[in-house]
Write a structure and sequence with these properties.
This protein is of the alpha/beta class. It folds into two domains: 5-128, Rossmann fold (3-Layer(aba) Sandwich), CATH 3.40.50.300; 135-381, Orthogonal Bundle (Arc Repressor Mutant, subunit A). The protein contains 18 helices and 14 strands. The chain has helices at 5-17, 31-41, 54-59, 63-67, 86-93, 109-119, 134-137, 142-148, 152-155, 160-181, 188-199, 208-215, 219-231, 260-266, 272-277, 281-297, 340-349, 378-381, and strands spanning 20-24, 46-50, 72-77, 100-106, 124-128, 204-205, 235-238, 254-257, 304-308, 314-321, 324-331, 353-358, 364-367, 370-374. Strands 9-10-11-12-14-13 form a six-stranded mixed β-sheet, sandwiched between helices. A five-stranded parallel β-sheet has the order 2-3-4-1-5, sandwiched between helices. It has a three-stranded antiparallel β-sheet with strand order 6-8-7. Helix 8 (142-148) packs across helix 14 (260-266), helix 10 (160-181) crosses helix 11 (188-199) and helix 12 (208-215) crosses helix 13. It is globular, with a radius of gyration of 22 Å. The mean pLDDT is 94.
Amino acid sequence: MIPRERDLDRVGLLLRQFPVVALLGARQVGKTTLAASLAAVRSGAVHRFDLERVDDLAQLADPMLALEALRGLVVIDEIQRRPELFPTLRVLADRPRTPARFLVLGSASRDLLQQSSETLAGRVAYHELSPLTLDDVGNARWRQLWRRGGFPRAFLPRSEEASCTWRRELIRTYLERDLPQLGVRIPAATLGRFWSMLAHYHAQTWNASELARAFGVSDTTVRGYLDLLAATFMVRVLPPWFANLAKRQVKAPKVYLTDSGILHTLLGIETAGGLERHPKVGASWEGFALAQVVAQLGARPDECHYWATHQGAELDLLVIREDLRRGFEFKRTSAPSVTPSMRTAIHDLGLDSIDVVHAGARTFALAPKIRAVACARILEDIAPL
């Protein structure tokens, strides 16, 4: 087991501040393991309900009867299977002196956020658990993390073959079992074809019309497919940033598959050599490095953007928090250089800095406000927000 100290500390802090904490993330990303680690270090009683177990579902048939008398920490796994529990949690969260705190684990943001926002406003905090990051595995293993992805059971096997097999099975069970349990009626084969097609558009600007023509459906339909993959944490949709400029700016989002290992499986890449020879290797590197930087910064989704103009200037990642503006570029090279786009971005966006994350071994200055940061030194050289 890989300790995830940053997430453990964050969820523990939220539980001290809120009566209900929602731990969200993709299936098999490690939510249950993190909850067990948290329970092991807490004092007092811990009660756990897994809504994939028939006996636990039966016990919660009358949720008030089952939960009202409990004290300490109550963990409810796969909460999206019983969204009708939220009104009960609201009543229990409002009790004087908060005799119990609730940690609810969910694998789909769409239903969970909708239900909890209606019934738990002001009582619930959210923490999204991403796949493993460099902070979890260490800088020295970045190549393995990029190649296999951050799902623990894909990253940890001794062989590449075992990792590939697990990722293929995750994709299959996600399409054939997990989505139907959420009430999704799209055929698994249809969504699987779209997901594979989307892998070839990884790190590109979203073009609904082009995808719709290629897939033979409407623009609205493909947008619905994209929203579903994003709501279940399989896709990152990076919105554009609009500056008050005279230049025409790109207004469509960019799309990334969240996990590089899943991306490689959908692209049919099974070996390190196959990855190096694949035409999407640069796009894969960009998405991986972007995810690591966002995790290291501790940036929220609403703080992350990209920027591009129709004249050709662009910035891969723009992170804004209050008056701070930090830019990032991702180059799969060991010798990055300053480009006209970087100088334009600093001038037009008023950036405090640009870090060019590259595949080499050293971090060094490139120009005023611009430096090259080695991927192997992200943890040391990129300061959190």
